[in-house]
């Protein structure tokens, strides 16, 4: 049974804690905060909050652009605004994918409007991708997947050494990390990276989650590449290359450093084909 530590409840004047989500790296509670009313309390399993340690400050800097409000943070705990509403991923899965993706691209544009926020306490992309260059292949890894991962790794290396500019990035911006509230779309759950703007929506090509046929449609991939590259003002080809590189990195992460047969092998191949156009 999960219980919010009493010192956190007392420090921030919290009560009526209800567990609403259990993620791999954190627990999320809906609480009532003395100073804010309904709020979300995120308790990380790691005291240093892992790769999201610097993300709360980035979200605070982006609050006027649509990011969730951060109320307080201490150690492994973060208290933030409670957002009521479905994610854009939920809206897409309910049959409104086109409108959800349009709202999503508009939000990405808002986050990265000029001038960009000045913040360098974030994880550089080369650190994020370093494990990909050391990955191994399982004996049962199909030859085609090996070739595709090697090709995507080559793309990652080229992209990292040719970044046209380096800016703060959400790092995990996709439809399930944007909530459609009564007052508009709001962004949550940043990783906090630093790097090429064209990377920002690379992971979005793998979403909405739970819609494999849509995500693997060549027409949909091209539609998203055009929509997202326009929203960020980046090269369509470079975005496609980052999407393929991120796809390979995700396959490697899922295998804990080893690449084996993976459900996303087909999508990786499609992204590589799009990157070659």
Which spans of ≥5 residues are poorly predicted at pLDDT below 50?
none
Question: What is the N-to-C order of secondary-structure elements (H for helix, E for strand)?
Answer: HEEEHEEHEHEHEEEEHHHEH
Name the shape in a single word.
Answer: globular
Mean pLDDT: 94
CA gyration radius, whole angstroms: 19 Å
Q: Which structural class is indicated by helix and strand composition? A: alpha+beta
Distance between the termini: 52 Å
Summarize the structure.
With 277 residues, this protein is an alpha+beta fold. It is built from nine helices and twelve strands. It has helices at 6-11, 55-61, 88-111, 125-129, 143-160, 212-215, 218-232, 236-254, 265-275, and strands at residues 14-22, 26-33, 37-44, 70-74, 77-81, 123-124, 136-137, 167-169, 178-181, 184-187, 193-195, 258-259.
